[in-house]
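Example for tutorial group B:
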């Protein structure tokens, strides 16, 4: 006869046979009291082989210190805790599923530990729930790889293949951004254009291999002597452009003079052992009101050619008289 009473449901069998989530229940002494089908299949350890035994004796490879603390904390504080695969790739070292096994040595796992109460409400153990997130981890790995490749491609597209410094494309984009930043924050910005003196003669005398060696060494010298915030760009041929943020014209001129002297006093040894004397001409100006990227570059380029017309191997700074 149906009395109308609702009987409590027993979910033990459902949990035990779960194939999508691993369930391990341990008591206060870390003895296993539940080991579901997911755990059997992935550990190759049947429930009858582990039930009633100490979890850490059956699986000595577990991080005992960490997991013991987590379980004790769960039981004493009666609160759950979560461990992400990004913090700890796995709790139990299981093989990845067949589909993911080719690219992964092990199954990535999220683990949640929560208190288990008796009918009286007393916490007598902890449940460890294991979720296989290998597909998620693999997807993130592939995404990160794609992003890294995209960044590498973008970086390489902005670099000069011979010298490794930034190229003309990067300069054209960056000078506009630096001008906007300088005006937004009311900070100084200087620009220098540099030309290696008589570079055609170097190419004619030492060949293109010698000329290339000079360009590489020269670019390295520029990078070494400038600040991390400065941008060294190969503007074209033997001409280089330097974007120098947060520096006054006076200090930029002094920096360029130190650089000029260092280059003059550092001859370049090329592959055949010959020594090449290198000198440079420089034009430098600071950003002023009304200057556009185009006019800024033209003013500095004109200053560079003033240095060349005046005998080369010198720095010419903007005086505001033009």
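The residue assignment follows.
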């Amino acid at each position: 006869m149906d009395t109308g009473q609702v009987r409590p449901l027993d979910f033990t069998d459902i949990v035990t046979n779960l194939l999508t989530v691993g369930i391990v229940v341990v008591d206060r002494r870390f003895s296993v009291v539940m080991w579901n089908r997911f755990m059997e299949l992935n550990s190759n350890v049947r429930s009858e082989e582990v039930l009633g035994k100490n979890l850490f004796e059956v699986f000595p490879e577990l991080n005992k210190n960490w997991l013991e603390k987590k379980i004790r904390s769960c039981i004493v504080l009666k609160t759950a805790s979560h461990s992400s695969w990004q913090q700890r790739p796995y709790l139990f070292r299981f093989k990845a599923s067949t589909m993911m096994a080719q690219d992964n040595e092990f199954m990535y796992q999220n683990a949640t530990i929560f208190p288990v109460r008796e009918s009286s409400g007393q916490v007598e153990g902890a449940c460890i729930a294991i979720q296989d997130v290998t597909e998620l981890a693999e997807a993130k790995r592939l995404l990160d790889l794609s992003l890294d490749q995209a960044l590498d491609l973008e970086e390489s597209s902005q670099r000069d293949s011979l010298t490794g410094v930034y190229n003309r494309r990067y300069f054209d984009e960056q000078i506009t951004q630096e001008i906007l930043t300088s005006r937004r924050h009311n900070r100084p910005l200087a620009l220098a254009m540099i030309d290696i003196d008589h570079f055609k003669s170097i190419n004619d005398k030492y060949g293109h291999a010698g000329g290339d060696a000079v360009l590489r060494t020269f670019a390295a010298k520029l990078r070494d002597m400038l600040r991390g915030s400065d941008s060294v760009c190969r503007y074209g041929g033997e001409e280089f452009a330097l974007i120098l943020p947060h520096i006054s014209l006076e200090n930029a001129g002094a920096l360029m003079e130190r650089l000029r002297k260092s280059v003059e006093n550092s001859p370049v040894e090329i592959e055949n052992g010959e020594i090449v004397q290198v000198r440079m001409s420089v034009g430098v100006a600071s950003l002023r009101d009304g200057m556009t990227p185009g006019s800024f570059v033209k003013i500095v380029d004109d200053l560079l050619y003033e240095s060349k017309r005046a005998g080369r191997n010198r720095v010419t700074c903007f005086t505001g008289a033009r």
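The radius of gyration is 35 Å. Compare this with the pattern of hydrophobic and polar residues in the output above.
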